[in-house]
Amino acid sequence: MIHKKIEELRRLLNYHNHKYYVENDPEISDREFDRMMRELQDLEEAHPEFADPNSPTARVGSDITSEFRSVEHRFPMLSLGNTYSLDELHEFIHRIEKEVDAPEFVCELKFDGTAISLTYRNGELIQAATRGDGARGDDVTTNVRTIRTIPLRLQGDDYPDLFEIRGEIFMPYASFDRLNMERAENGEPLLANPRNAAAGTLKQQSSAVVAQRGLDCTLYQLAGENLPFKTHWESLQKARSWGFKISEHARNCRTLEEIDQFIAYWDESRKQLPFATDGVVIKVNDFTEQRILGFTAKAPKWAVAYKFKAEQALTRLESIDFQVGRTGAITPVANLDPVLLAGTTVKRATLHNAEQIALLDIRVGDMVYVEKGGEIIPKITGVDLSARSAESQPLQYITHCPVCDTPLVRYEGESKHYCPNQSHCRPQILGRIIHYTSRKAMNIEGLGDETVELLFENGLVRNIADLYDLRADQLARLPRLGERSAENIVRNIRQSAEVPFARVLFALGIRFVGETTAKYLASHFRTLDAVMQASREELVEAEEVGEKIAEAILDYFADEENRQIIERLRKAGIRTEADAKVLQSESLAGKSFVISGKFTAHSRDELKEMIESHGGKNLSAVSANVDFLVAGDKVGPAKLQKATKLGIRLISEEELISMIAQADSSDNRITISPTPHPVSGKAEEKTPINETAEQGSLF
Ligand code: IVH
Known about the structure:
- The chain is an alpha+beta fold.
- Helix content is 35%, strand content 18%.
- It has 24 helices and 22 strands.
- The strands form six sheets. It has a five-stranded mixed sheet with strand order 2-11-10-3-9. Strands 14-13-12-15-16 form a five-stranded antiparallel sheet, with no helix packed on it.
- Helix 1 (2-22) packs antiparallel against helix 2 and helix 16 (501-507) packs across helix 17.
- It starts with a helix and ends in a 33-residue tail after the last helix.
- The relative contact order is 0.07.
- The model is unreliable at 667-699 (pLDDT under 50).
- Bound molecules: 2-(butylsulfanyl)adenosine (IVH).
- Residues 78-80, 82, 108, 110-111, 115, 168, 220-221, 281, 300, 303, 305 line the site of 2-(butylsulfanyl)adenosine.
């Protein structure tokens, strides 16, 4: 009885969910829907024996954190060839017309989100996987179940027993704006665009958060063995009848003119769509013809993406602000007459530097073209000269710091101007402290921009080392900070002594040393002393470090004030050494290696890590003590010569890896696992996409 009731409620909720979210044609009120959902939740809670992962209650998500298992795609997820040129598109069509007779095409929108592959068995969603590297992706099923437009159970009875359907998960502009508004209110960094927001949301640990974010999904490709369809179009219509959201905007086109018209129409009309699109996908409709055309290594030869040029808006440049960053870099920022661009209102745009302004001859009062790149802040890409008034004057770039009036300087090879007054220019002092406390650096909670400003105004901190001298009673006396938060802040500052060395290096705020470079430096030099003592030549030996970064590091440590700050940080217990390495095995114990040349699958530092973590030793010079020279492309000729003379064995990257693997499996201790990437900490997936005969019969 109860089971029947549960099943009935599930059926009804699935039906009304589809009516509401996919068809946009609800039959019952939201209240009635919510009431049924609650009734079902209560029944399921009381009767866990009838649990079902595809119950409509899964839409709400949960806080249980899930690991994203890596799963193999039954059929590789390929990408598409793409072009921005209509001529190239026409050539592509002509090539197809040479191979198959009078092909019919399906033109679709190219949705700008993140690709997903859904697997259904007997009408039930059993897996949702991201594209990953095309061969393997991440299992994100729990999160995907919360997306209301994705059916958990299919309608009708003519779907294949087992099939995959692929499409795009995206975040509509309305959800994106809401999310960024919330993030702004919470002082969290904004997301650059709906595509990043969709991809990031899909990887959230809590599916309850995903459920709140308003993701959507459109499906555009069926994959399976022996699918009973002749054409792509037919398969899409069928998929729609099973409950999937299939775009209404796809069209059959027979001629180049029809394809061009479709593109021209959407290049303009996409501005009215409530979600982001970045082009049009043109596919051969007939599956037999698709098979004849086949695949290249990466993409089908029967489909191509025509990409739209980035959306532009034209608006007036009202004024220019000059911002001073924590490193003293000056960034000109344009204040614009607010204008709608790609779904959001734009009020400010970056102008990069003086050269850029001069190059485009940008002047206050001009009508300027604004475009969105990958970043949050849009950029100005041109000026409408015809709209310029006769009185307009070229812009005079500032010569002095807008805050402290110090004359600005230019460093060689740098396009930005800098204020060199590091110790006394307010935004630089504040910026350095704020950077030090920020989440990706020392992650000191409770010390946001405003509190740091407050501490500075009250003379309590002038530099990052001062933080460690703060006492709770000093903080508690400040406005807006009670005793409790004062104590919390002091505790959090102390706890920052736990932060790993790589992040400490990043937190120091050395010019050009970002998160990644800091990780490379930490893994290469291992201790702060080693970084401080390194010469220019030694610095550039570390991955990612070139002359410019080396110079900035030398400058930083040459500064007496910085050295004093570092001594105080050391006394405060901040970590100045990388963690001791955990040995994965001793398969290379007693063996010494020199690495030289360029490698394909791993970086030099990764190979060194690998050697050390399996008990081997890295040496920098070839000598009689060396057992192996691991030689990559363009191996140093002197090293090679010396190694040959000394009779040292030359091995390739692959040989090194198989040496580790063989030794490991022969002594049965540890089997080789992909070595963690020094930067991401994640095992790297390097599985190539197989180009198998199977692919021809995929779709
Ligand atoms: S078809 C074998 N159709 O674009 C080709 N892809 O640049 C399967 N995309 O990875 C893809 N809209 O994530 C196809 N209507 C559409 C699409 C679409 C967006 C994405 C998809 C793909 C990427 C290729």
